[in-house]
C-alpha cells in the first residue's frame, strides 16, 4: 500500500516523514508512467487485433472463394466426363453407321448382280424374238407358195411375227431401262464402297466426322488432365487457407488475451486509488450512468413507461436500412431523456468521441445527435459513420460494455468509421441499474 501524506504532526515527525513522502511520490510517478506505458501497449494490441481481424476476413473470403472454385472445378470435371462419354458414344455410332453403310453397299452390289442377270435374260429374249420373227417370216413365205391352202397359216405367221416384234421391242426397252438403272446403281455402289485412295463424298464425310470426334476426344482428355492438376492445386490452396485460418485464430486469441491483460492492469491501477490519466473519464462515465438510471427510475415511477416496455428485447428490423436498424418499445422514451445527459457528457473533454447508453444486448436506441442522421438509401459507407442509432453493436467491446456490472470497465478497441477507416479508442463503461435491475451500460469513448 502507498502511504499518503498526513496534514498534522510535529516538525520532527514531519522531518522523519519527508523521505517517505518523497518515496511515495516517486512510487506514484512510476505507477502513473507504468499506467501510460500499459495504455500505449493496449493501443498497439488493439491495432494488432484489428489488423488480425482484417486478415481473418480476407482469409475467410479466400477460403469461401476456394470452396466455390472447387465446386466449379468439380462441375467442370463432371461436364468433361459427360463430353468424353458422349464422344465415345459418337465414335461408336460412326463406326456402326459405316458398318451399316458397308452392308447397304453389299446389298446394292447384290442388286446390281441381279439386274445384270435380268438384263442378260432380256437380251436372250430379244434373240429369241428375232429368231421367232425369222421363223414367222419364212412361214409366211411358204404359206404364200401354198396358195389358198396356206392362207390360214399365213395369218398365224403374221400374228406370230407381230407378237415377236412386240416382244423384241419390250425386251430392248427392258435392257435399256436396266442399263440406265445399272449405271445409277454402279455410281451409288461406288459412293458406298470405301476406297482410301479415292474416297467417295459419303466416306469422306464419315472420315471428317471421325477425325472431328477424335479431336474432341483428345481435347477432352487433355482438358481432363489439366482439370485434375487444377483440382489438386485447388485442394492444396484450400488446405493452406485452412492452416492460415487456424494460425490467425491462434494469433487473434493471443492478441485478445494480451489486450485484455493490459486493460485489466490499467483497471487494477485505477482501482488502487492512483489518479491515472483515465480516472476523469471513468468518473464521468459513472456519473452519467447514475443520471441515466435516475431518469429511467423516475419515468417508471411516473408511469411514463412500464417495466416490461423498458426492458423490451424484441428488436424489430426497420425495413430498407443498411446497416440494419431496429426499433423497440422504449425508443421514444430514450429519445426524450438520454440526449440531455449524453450531450452534456460529450462536452466533458475534447478527447471524448461519443457518450451513449446501451441496453444489455448492445442495442443503442439513442446515439449522440451528430451520429443520429437519417440513413441515405444505398449509401452504406455514409450510414455506417453517421447513422449509428437504432443499431445493435454486439461485438466484443459492445457486449462487454453492455453486460458489465462492475463499478467500471476499461477497454481499448478499433472503431469502424466506414469506408475502410478505423480509429483506436479507449472506452470507460459504467453499469446502468434501474430499480436494482441491470438495464445496460453507459459507454464513454475517448481518444488517446
Could you explain how this protein is built, in words?
- There is one protein chain.
- By secondary structure, this protein is α+β, with helices and mostly antiparallel strands.
- Helices cover 68% and strands 11% of the residues.
- The chain has eight helices and eight strands; from the N terminus they run H-H-H-H-H-E-E-H-E-E-H-E-H-E-E-E.
- The strands form three sheets. It has a four-stranded antiparallel sheet, with helices on both faces. A two-stranded antiparallel ribbon has the order 1-2. Strands 4-5 form a two-stranded antiparallel sheet.
Q: Name the helicity range.
A: 55-70%
Mean pLDDT: 78
Measured by DSSP, the beta-strand proportion falls in 5-15%
Uncertain runs with pLDDT below 50, 5 residues or more? 1-16
Question: What structural class do you assign from the helix and strand content?
Answer: alpha+beta
Secondary structure layout plus pairing:
Blueprint: H1 11-145, H2 151-192, H3 201-271, H4 279-301, H5 307-310, E1 316-317, E2 326-327, H6 331-346, E3 352-359, E4 363-364, H7 380-386, E5 391-392, H8 396-403, E6 409-418, E7 421-434, E8 437-446
Antiparallel strand pairs: 1-2, 3-8, 4-5, 6-7, 7-8
Helix pairs in contact: 1-2, 1-3, 4-6
Task: Describe, in short, the structure shown.
The protein is α+β, with helices and mostly antiparallel strands and 448 residues long. It has 8 helices and 8 strands, in the order H-H-H-H-H-E-E-H-E-E-H-E-H-E-E-E. The strands form 3 sheets. It has a 4-stranded antiparallel β-sheet with strand order 3-8-7-6, sandwiched between helices.
Amino acid at each position: 500500500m502507498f502511504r499518503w501524506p498526513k496534514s498534522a504532526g510535529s516538525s520532527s515527525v514531519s522531518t522523519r516523514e519527508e523521505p517517505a513522502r518523497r518515496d511515495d511520490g516517486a512510487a506514484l510517478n512510476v505507477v502513473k508512467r507504468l499506467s501510460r506505458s500499459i495504455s500505449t501497449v493496449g493501443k498497439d494490441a488493439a491495432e494488432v487485433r484489428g489488423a488480425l481481424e482484417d486478415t481473418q476476413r480476407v482469409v475467410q473470403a479466400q477460403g469461401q472463394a476456394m470452396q466455390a472454385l472447387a465446386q466449379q472445378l468439380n462441375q467442370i470435371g463432371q461436364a468433361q466426363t459427360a463430353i468424353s462419354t458422349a464422344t465415345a458414344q459418337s465414335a461408336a455410332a460412326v463406326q456402326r453407321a459405316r458398318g451399316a453403310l458397308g452392308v447397304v453397299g453389299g446389298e446394292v452390289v447384290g442388286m446390281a448382280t441381279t439386274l445384270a442377270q435380268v438384263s442378260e435374260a432380256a437380251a436372250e429374249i430379244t434373240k429369241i424374238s428375232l429368231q421367232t420373227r425369222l421363223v414367222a417370216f419364212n412361214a409366211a413365205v411358204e404359206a404364200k407358195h401354198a396358195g389358198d391352202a396356206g392362207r390360214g397359216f399365213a395369218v398365224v405367221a403374221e400374228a406370230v411375227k407381230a407378237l415377236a416384234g412386240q416382244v423384241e421391242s419390250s425386251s430392248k426397252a427392258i435392257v435399256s431401262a436396266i442399263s440406265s438403272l445399272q449405271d445409277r446403281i454402279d455410281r451409288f455402289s461406288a459412293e458406298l464402297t470405301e476406297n482410301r485412295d479415292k474416297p467417295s463424298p459419303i466416306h469422306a464425310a464419315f472420315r471428317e466426322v471421325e477425325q472431328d470426334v477424335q479431336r474432341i476426344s483428345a481435347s477432352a482428355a487433355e482438358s481432363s488432365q489439366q482439370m485434375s492438376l487444377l483440382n489438386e492445386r485447388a485442394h492444396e490452396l484450400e488446405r493452406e487457407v485452412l492452416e492460415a485460418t487456424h494460425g490467425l485464430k491462434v494469433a487473434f486469441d493471443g492478441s485478445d488475451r494480451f489486450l485484455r491483460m493490459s486493460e485489466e492492469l490499467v483497471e487494477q491501477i485505477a482501482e488502487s486509488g492512483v489518479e491515472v490519466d483515465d480516472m476523469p473519464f471513468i468518473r464521468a462515465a459513472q456519473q452519467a450512468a447514475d443520471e441515466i438510471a435516475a431518469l429511467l427510475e423516475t419515468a417508471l415511477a411516473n408511469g411514463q413507461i412500464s417495466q416490461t416496455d423498458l426492458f423490451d428485447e424484441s428488436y424489430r428490423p426497420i425495413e430498407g436500412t443498411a446497416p440494419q436498424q431496429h426499433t423497440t418499445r422504449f425508443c421514444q422514451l430514450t429519445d426524450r431523456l438520454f440526449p440531455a445527459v449524453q450531450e452534456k457528457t460529450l462536452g466533458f473533454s475534447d478527447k471524448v468521441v461519443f457518450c451513449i447508453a446501451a441496453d444489455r444486448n448492445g442495442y443503442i436506441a439513442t446515439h449522440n445527435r451528430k451520429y443520429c442522421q437519417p440513413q441515405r438509401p444505398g449509401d452504406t459507407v455514409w450510414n455506417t459513420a453517421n447513422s449509428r442509432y437504432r443499431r445493435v453493436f454486439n461485438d466484443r467491446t459492445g457486449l462487454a460494455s453492455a453486460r458489465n456490472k462492475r463499478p467500471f470497465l476499461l477497454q481499448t478497441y478499433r472503431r469502424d468509421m466506414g469506408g475502410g477507416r478505423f480509429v483506436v479508442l479507449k472506452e470507460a463503461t459504467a453499469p446502468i441499474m434501474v430499480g436494482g435491475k441491470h438495464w445496460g451500460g453507459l459507454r464513454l469513448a475517448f481518444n488517446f
